[in-house]
Amino acid sequence: MQNNNRHIFIAREGLAAKFIAHKLAQCTNLDGIIIELGKKAKKRKLKRLFKGKIWEFPPKILDLLFIYRLNKVISKYIENRMIEKEGVEEYPDKIPLFVFDDVNDRECITKLNELAPDVLIVFGTSILKKPIIEIPKSDILNIHGGIVPKYRNVHSEFWAMAKDDLDMIGTSIIHLDIGIDSGAVALQKTLKVEGNTSLAEIKYRNLKLSAELICEALALHDKNELPYIPQKKDNMKFFKTPKYKDWRTFRHKIRLT
User: Fold this and answer.
1) Cα dist. 98→108, 109, 143, 240 in Å?
2) Considering the chain, what is the average pLDDT of its residues?
């Protein structure tokens, strides 16, 4: 259903972003796509990782190799499913596409101001700074592959599996604020997950759920019926990126593929 709101999608580069973009183009008027390459963000992360004493480096290198392998294996699994089952390989045609290394760069902020979005849809980017958050006229909706407030930050599915909390695997659509996955909840939905399901398959199914839920959220937004449910601060939990020792501890619970 078409409407007068201008929707801009902003995401980190990847086939998952291409899939969400296609679904948005099907369910609403998508007026532009901004893609973040994230090279600067990766360099900043590496710089932070290797601060400290030289004897602290070996476990940090193990952590880095583990998370690289984890992301690579899951990304390859999802890419194969996206191409084979969804037929997605590129961003949708005829929708303006803009590429920046960092979404918080001045050039990206200038372009967003030109695009003048009513609603900004965010998926997997660097943490947005205040100049971007202030641009949309109506709302910023963040697609988070976890159930908040219990599972904030990235790799929510990993931690839910590690904690034997399979009923809390799913997606939240959040009214984005200045914090990390701390904004009011618009919509949430969980997946039905069996204990023998691989992490990669869960990630793939959660991605499909994310596309379904953001389309539902936009339809409600256009009717001024989108919920706004503040998160209870005393229930908020924040899980960091898993380390190699976490994998060693929980690998009997988590099958990658």
Assistant:
1) 9, 12, 20, 30
2) 93
